[in-house]
Amino acid sequence: MQTTRQNRISRLIQTDLGDIFVKEMKAALGASLVTVTKVRVTPDLSIARIYVSIFPIGDTTKERVMQAIDDHSGDIRRRLGLREGKQLRIIPHLEFYLDDSLDYIENIERLLKS
């Protein structure tokens, strides 16, 4: 169960990271659309676990984009710090995970149609 502060910081990070991926990291990520679906912050606010969804769907595309995100995680954290510097004392360490819930939903729909 997350506290009110954790939820507020999670929403703030989710909004700012979504903006960073769309506007500032477009060249590094290629033609893929990266959406931040969920952010979980630890109780001590030191680690933020970010779940991202990648479109278009393809195993090689997802692996390539996740590798690019991991390679640029320091730059992403710096950009996040520039945006949230006045609101947070310490910018949490960012851990990125692939959110495959859309793939799961798509698979269920495909199975129901057949």
Structure explained in plain terms:
- With 114 residues, the chain is an alpha+beta fold.
- The protein has one domain: 2-Layer Sandwich (GMP Synthetase, Chain A, domain 3), CATH 3.30.300.20.
- It is 55% helix and 21% strand.
- The mean pLDDT is 87.
Record the SSE blueprint.
Blueprint: H1 4-24, H2 26-29, E1 33-41, E2 47-55, H3 59-71, H4 73-84, E3 93-98, H5 101-113
Parallel strand pairs: 2-3
Antiparallel strand pairs: 1-2
Helix pairs in contact: 1-4
Strand order of the largest sheet: 1-2-3
Largest sheet: 3 strands, mixed
Order of helices and strands: HHEEHHEH
Oligomer state of the chains in this structure: single chain
Overall mean pLDDT stands at 87
> Based on helices, strands and strand pairing, what is the structural class?
alpha+beta
What is the CATH homology-level superfamily? K homology (KH) domain
Bin the strand percentage: 15-25%
Question: What is the CATH-assigned architecture?
Answer: 2-Layer Sandwich
CATH class assignment:
Alpha Beta
The number of strands is: 3
According to CATH, the fold-level topology is GMP Synthetase, Chain A, domain 3
Radius of gyration: 15 Å
Query: What is the count of DSSP helices, taking H or I runs of 4+ residues?
Result: 5
Indicate the percent of residues in helices.
55-70%
- Give the overall form: globular
Give the low-confidence spans.
Answer: none
Give the tally of structural domains. 1
